[in-house]
Design goal:
Aminopeptidase, 2 domains, 13-stranded mixed β-sheet, two-stranded antiparallel ribbon, globular
Length: about 375
């Protein structure tokens, strides 16, 4: 049976594109759907700030008139500017039945599109850049999904391997058991470090939601500077960060976000952890597909405003970094200990610290010291054009 690839050109086709994962994962009890409201925004070129500078086209694979796969071909000029004409295009939003012919047709469509942009390499999955969902699960399939993290069946690995893709980079995800105490030695070290620097005038504080935009500007400044030397980094625009600020205004818990400032008021470091709202989307799968969008939002609202603690059972630490001039002074210990303590205070059971580059030992070491254990691995693939 032949495979037909169609470019998504209208609202009707885009709805099929967005809803296809519900068919791919209908028999997977661990799959948590995306938050539908956010997923619609991610593929909308007028609403997603990525498309202020980037571009993408979306493709569906059909067999016998039925959608059986999807992919996006993505051009990110900021990546290639920042990485000095890396000449790399991207693919993302990939979902597919277990059929190599379907996968090959999707990858071919993305490759041809990327080639028209003048690129010599195609990398993915990235949907749309490293500030969004990246990577493909290659180990740790038995775990529930966290927000902005991928979930896929094991056969995706074979689909990429047989297409002659090669490993670009592996990413590690760490699990933290919040029912256990913070290791006493690490807690003692973090407290002594904080006490020493507070005597010097450094400020250690939680996020102030009453001044959210100001605090998120500090977080953005640290992010842009602390991550710029990381593999694959792509800078955020002001609008991208403003969009994140708007989303966080509802979900953020002040104690789960720490900001460190110098005596002169300079940003030193930060750590950002949030409730895992994918628990709401996993719950909504109990309902018919047509009602899941509203049930996602109703369950989220109930948890945030009505449900007593614990409002969620899990959270994700997804940003933590120290400005280059303040590194190797012990601040990193605090960035992992205090969100750990906040999670315990909120009665969370577990947390994910993700993702980390496989070779970023400066970050991996303090995560392991607080008890983090690698429990899931992701892969980013390269494909020469």
């Amino acid at each position: 049976m032949s495979v037909e690839i169609k470019k998504v050109t209208g609202t009707k086709e885009m709805k099929k594109f967005i809803k296809l994962p519900w068919d791919i994962f209908k028999n997977d009890p661990l799959w948590a759907p995306p938050l539908l409201m956010e997923e619609v925004k991610r593929v909308n070129k007028k609403k997603n700030p990525f498309f202020e500078y980037g571009d993408a086209d979306f493709f569906l694979a059909y067999r016998d008139g039925k959608p059986v796969g999807r992919i996006a071909a993505i051009d990110n000029p900021k990546h290639n500017e920042f990485h000095k004409d890396d000449r790399t295009g991207f693919w993302g939003f990939f979902d597919c039945i277990n059929d190599q012919n379907v996968a090959d047709a999707l990858f071919n469509a993305a490759k041809e599109w990327v080639k028209t942009k003048g690129h010599k390499n195609m990398r993915g999955p990235m949907s749309c850049d490293t500030n969004d969902e990246v990577g493909m699960v290659i180990d740790g399939f038995e775990n529930l999904r966290y927000f902005m993290m991928p979930h896929n069946p094991p056969y995706y690995f074979d689909l990429c391997k047989k297409y002659k893709m090669t490993r670009a980079k592996d990413l590690f995800c760490f699990h933290l058991d919040l029912t256990k105490p913070v290791p006493e030695r690490i807690l003692s070290i973090a407290e002594k470090i904080q006490e020493r620097y507070e005597k010097q005038g450094y400020v250690f504080r939680s996020l102030n939601k009453k001044n959210l935009k100001h605090d998120l500007r500090i977080i953005m400044d640290i992010y842009q500077e602390a991550w710029k030397e990381n593999w694959g980094f792509s800078p955020m625009t002001k609008r991208q960060f403003d969009e994140m600020a708007e989303s966080m205004s509802l979900i953020a818990v002040e104690d789960m976000i720490i900001i460190i400032e110098s005596p002169e008021g300079k940003p030193v470091g930060m750590a950002v952890a949030l409730y895992n709202w994918m628990e709401c989307t996993h719950y909504a799968r109990k309902f018919p597909k047509a009602f899941q969008g509203i049930m996602q939002l109703l369950n989220l609202a109930w948890r945030l405003f009505l449900k007593p603690k614990p409002k969620f059972r899990s959270g994700r630490l997804f940003l933590a970094g120290v400005m280059p001039e303040f590194r190797n002074r012990g601040f990193d210990a605090i960035l992992y200990v205090f969100p750990f303590m906040a999670g315990k205070k909120l009665k969370l059971k577990e947390g994910e610290l993700s993702w980390e580059l496989e070779d970023n030992t400066a970050i991996i070491s303090p995560i392991e010291k607080v008890g983090g254990k690698v429990y899931r691995k992701l892969r980013i693939w390269d494909c020469r054009i």
